[in-house]
């Protein structure tokens, strides 16, 4: 009886991951459109602060509006929330203010990979 219960629990947890990860329904995943929006917002915020401190007036570059595309975020895929948080923190942090949002985006956000069993790693996209 205990063996059946244990096997049932393992099967349930595996099917839970197989279903919920690709759908983005787990807590630690974030849809690409949301991740791209957060990265773009961080780049705009960094540009506004930098331009205000350096030039005395607020302005943003067109590249800040394309920050999600520069980070190669695909809106229909899902990404690990902790990786996106790290990217956003680096853009809005000290590195972002010293190097600028574009260079920080290129350095820090290029390693974001899609996550899930159907839509990305560890298996190829369908």
Automatic annotation (TrEMBL):
Highest rank taxon of the organism: Bacteria
Protein name, per record: Lipoprotein
């Amino acid at each position: 009886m205990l063996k059946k219960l244990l096997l049932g629990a393992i099967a349930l947890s595996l099917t839970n991951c197989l279903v919920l990860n690709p759908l983005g329904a787990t807590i630690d995943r974030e849809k690409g459109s949301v991740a791209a929006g957060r990265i773009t917002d961080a780049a705009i915020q960094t540009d506004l602060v930098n331009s205000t401190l350096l030039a005395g007036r607020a302005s943003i570059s067109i590249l800040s509006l394309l920050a999600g595309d520069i980070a190669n975020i695909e809106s229909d895929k899902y990404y690990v929330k902790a990786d996106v948080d790290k990217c956003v923190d680096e853009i809005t942090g000290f590195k972002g203010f010293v190097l600028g949002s574009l260079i920080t985006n290129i350095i820090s956000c290029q390693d974001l990979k899609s996550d899930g069993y159907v839509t990305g790693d560890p298996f190829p996209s369908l």
